[in-house]
Amino acid sequence: MCGIVGYIGPKEKKEIILDGLQELEYRGYDSAGMAVIEDHKLQNFKAVGKLVNLREKTKEYNSDGFGISIGHTRWATHGKPTELNAHPHLGKYSYVVHNGIIENYQELKQELSDEGFVFLSQTDTETIVHLFEKYHNSGLNSFDAFQKTIQRLEGAFAILLITEAQSDTIFFAKNGSPMLIGFDSNDVYFASSDTPIIGKAHEVCYLNDGEYGYARPGDVKLFDSNGSKEINKKPLVTNKAMAQKEGYRFFMEKEIYEQSTVVSDTMIGRASANGIKFEELSSLSLEGITSIKICACGTSYHAALASSYLFERLAKMRCSVEIASEFRYKEPLLDPDTLFITISQSGETADTLEALKMAKKAGLKSLTICNMDNSSIVRESDAAILTRAGIEKGVASTKAFATQMMVLWMLSLKFAKERGTISDEKFSEEITAMLQVPKSLIISDKLHGKITRLSKRYLHGHGFFYIGRDIFYPLALEGALKLKEISYLHAEGYPAGEMKHGPIALADAELFTIALMPQTSHYDKIKSNVEELSARDATILSISPLPFELADDFIQTDHATHPMLEFFEMMVVTQLLALEISIRLGNDVDMPRNLAKSVTVE
Ligand code: G6P
């Protein structure tokens, strides 16, 4: 996730770009930059870190005549957050800003380097501006060169490009990443979402995937693969808070809905029909590694626990998982043949960071799965895989967990392949299922409506047990944690087979059991466990593709061809259930009491 702003007109461009980027800073703040062409003169500024640094750098600069401008706030995906990697990226006479991931950038970079183009950054984005100049230098006019450029790009992008060769025009394209155009008489605005242009533009056109075009003062032309298109303008909403949440009631809700997109972003360039690839692991050899130890806290710990089933089952690697705060003081025995993995959304959790330092001191190789590039844990680790969930604002983690699970599944398959512990047939079955995950995360109105209606029956009672077996046990822990965090109701996650060894003593009509009953993983076993609870009068909410006659309530899931597809779909159901219960109880969903998004103290 990154944020993009653009403006064409006579107003002070620096302020419009900086104010717009401020609204988008939640999308990333590793670095920021802007480029302005005024009077045929191009100016470019970049600064590492938060936007305030770019403000400081541009404080002497004014841009109050007619001109064009583009700006960007970055959330690193390729290359560290340095000034050279900050956008806009420059060619000889053009600048580009980009949000998304160009999947075929390595191939393009090779082609352009062979032709003598010099790359200054490690980003995928820089290929766009060189490609444009290559076609422009070959004699094409600017628009044709731009059109040809975007035809070469694979992956997700929202792009703004400006060039001294046509200094009154912004070229734009959208495919998979958000972009809109705002209109106010002859002035034209671009942005990744509504908020930067509220109070400035009066009408808006939300671009669709595959659309591109060019804009000059009072003149915007839109195209797609069928040629020129009408521009569909709408009046712009004026409520900023609503616009930031894009119509959702809470950031957590928005983030639950974003999961399909961010999981797909996390897979780009890594998972395909040809297998699993992690460029970031090229320097991390598995030679001599026989086992895995994972340390994490909170939701990330639940992802770790779920992945231990995958590492053992698929890659046949011994995998132990520990809560970081416990690991630190148990005087753990550490062997150098163990790969030490940390998982962290923020990359700043104190206990996880300290656990990592201990493992490094003991000579272990370290890998982190993290959502924040340049965070302390990423810097401290030998290798890092970024989860590309974008900034998560809701304190209760949702999309970060989904992307962690996807990375861990991909990683276990990669290890399995390297170690020869998986047959070709099984491997391709796994990949086929994996590629369906983004689809399984799309939430239907029917499902959400059902959960909203059901939630009114679960506001009281003396407790919740979320139960599951296998990977659905850590998911039960995570479902219970979500409910605790935002509803303040007591909830526990339990292995379904363990209920009879104690907790079943609590069973009565006021004990709510949320039963995760996947069709593809030990269905009959969990069914018996739930029957035992039902016989003791517990109230059962069953989540399953298969109707269950003893259930008091039933939420039917769809994807029953692979346990991981069921896992992701049931994850969404538990998240929505916690959300709807919390909303009915009138709680602050995004900022629940007593919690913090990033816990940097022990
Ligand atoms: C805090 C957050 C949790 C999170 C945990 C670990 O407690 O409230 O949502 O799961 O920290 O955070 P991390 O950033 O390391 O994943």
Structure report:
There is one protein chain. It contains 19 helices and 27 strands. An eight-stranded antiparallel sheet has the order 3-2-4-1-10-9-11-15, with helices on one face. Strands 5-6-7-8-12-13-14 form a seven-stranded antiparallel sheet, with helices on one face. A five-stranded parallel sheet has the order 19-18-20-21-22, sandwiched between helices. Strand 18 (291-296), helix 9 and strand 19 (318-323) form a beta-alpha-beta unit. Helix 4 crosses helix 5, helix 9 (298-315) packs parallel to helix 13 and helix 9 packs antiparallel against helix 17. The protein starts with a strand and ends in an 18-residue tail after the last helix. The protein binds 6-O-phosphono-alpha-D-glucopyranose. Residues 297-300, 344-346, 349, 352, 395, 397, 595-599 line the site of 6-O-phosphono-alpha-D-glucopyranose.
Q: What's the alpha carbon Rg, rounded to whole Å?
A: 25 Å
Q: Which cofactor or ligand species appear?
A: 6-O-phosphono-alpha-D-glucopyranose
Mass-distribution shape: globular
Structural class: alpha/beta
- Helical residue percent band: 25-40%
Largest sheet: 8 strands, antiparallel
CATH-level-2 architecture of the largest domain: 4-Layer Sandwich
Question: What is the name of the CATH class of the largest domain?
Answer: Alpha Beta
